[in-house]
């Protein structure tokens, strides 16, 4: 039932808000109005891990980002995230990522960070609110031109699928891929959002991609199972909808944008599509950016 998904999502939200606190299952269950046993059972059922393990992996992952992005002492970060000592933190970090915190802070590299769990989706929201839903009034997709400089793209290109759901259902681990790319977020090409999906074309066939755009100067390691490709500079037509409520309007917004993106004639703006060796991008960050499809073009 969707109620379980919503409850577990509230648990995830609570963990994220209290990630550095010495919080207890009892305190969380009291705030949510469920017994500790029920909370633990439903969390494990929907996420495949115990609540204790989830908290541990999120703490160690958040700590890793602070090691990467700040010059704080390892001990201070360890204490902040609830570890009893630097030695305990080092053991936990080494268990998770096969290197010590000190080594990672000195030379960060791609590691599989644990990502935030999302178990309450627009589908569950629709079921919950189906008797209350009113007609959604969306604004038309905006169309603008954006220049993206030459860059590298690190990720996975899968020619056998053409959409987000099929991509993750085709043997790619969302948690592992997204977590590893999150550890590389400090290398994101300036002006871009970070983890990006999209489409590419190979011998006339359309495929789906997922990865992160980085500078042409990036010469660091490429995560196992991924590759790095050079993407030339280009202008893009951007079909865009501003920030929206993910649970309420995600499907409608994506449909509105994509209907325009895939039917638009660029000649009306003096362009033609240029997708032979370039790739389309899909930006999806509902509350902070919105949703957009970017298609490369060149002037007529």
From TrEMBL:
UniProt keywords, alphabetically: DNA-binding, Transcription, Transcription regulation
Molecular function per GO: DNA-binding transcription factor activity; sequence-specific DNA binding
InterPro entries registered for this protein in UniProt: Homeodomain-like_sf (IPR009057), HTH_AraC (IPR018060), HTH_AraC-typ_CS (IPR018062), MarA-like (IPR050959), Tscrpt_reg_AraC-type_HTH (IPR020449)
SUPFAM superfamilies: Homeodomain-like
Limits of the HTH araC/xylS-type domain: 9-107
Alphabetical list of Gene3D superfamilies matching this protein: Homeodomain-like
Protein name per Swiss-Prot or TrEMBL: AraC family transcriptional regulator
């Amino acid at each position: 039932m969707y109620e379980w998904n919503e409850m577990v999502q509230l648990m995830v939200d609570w963990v994220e808000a209290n990630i550095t606190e010495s919080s207890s299952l009892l305190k969380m269950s009291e705030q949510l109005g469920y017994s500790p046993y029920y909370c633990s059972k439903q969390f494990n059922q929907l996420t495949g891990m115990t609540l204790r393990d989830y908290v541990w992996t999120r703490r160690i992952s958040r700590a890793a980002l602070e090691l990467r992005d700040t010059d704080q002492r390892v001990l201070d970060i360890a204490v902040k995230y609830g570890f009893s000592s630097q030695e305990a933190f080092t053991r936990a970090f080494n268990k998770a990522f096969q290197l010590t915190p000190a080594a990672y802070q000195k030379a960060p590299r791609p590691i599989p960070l644990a990502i935030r769990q999302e178990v309450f989706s627009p589908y569950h929201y629709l079921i919950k609110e189906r008797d209350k839903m009113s007609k959604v009034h969306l604004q038309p997709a905006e169309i603008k031109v954006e220049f993206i400089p030459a860059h590298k793209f690190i990720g996975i290109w899968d020619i056998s699928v053409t959409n987000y759901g099929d991509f993750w259902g085709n043997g790619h681990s969302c948690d592992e891929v997204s977590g590893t790319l999150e550890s590389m977020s400090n290398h994101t090409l300036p002006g871009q959002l970070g983890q990006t999906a999209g489409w590419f074309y190979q011998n006339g066939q359309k495929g789906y991609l997922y990865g992160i755009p980085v500078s042409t100067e990036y010469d660091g390691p490429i995560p196992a199972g991924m590759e790095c490709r050079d993407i030339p500079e280009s202008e893009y037509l951007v079909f865009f909808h501003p920030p929206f409520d993910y649970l309420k309007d995600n499907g409608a917004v994506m449909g509105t944008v994509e209907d325009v993106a895939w039917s638009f004639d660029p000649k009306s703006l003096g362009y033609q599509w240029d997708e032979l060796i370039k790739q389309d991008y899909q930006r999806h960050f509902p509350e902070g950016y919105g949703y957009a499809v970017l298609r490369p073009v060149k002037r007529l």
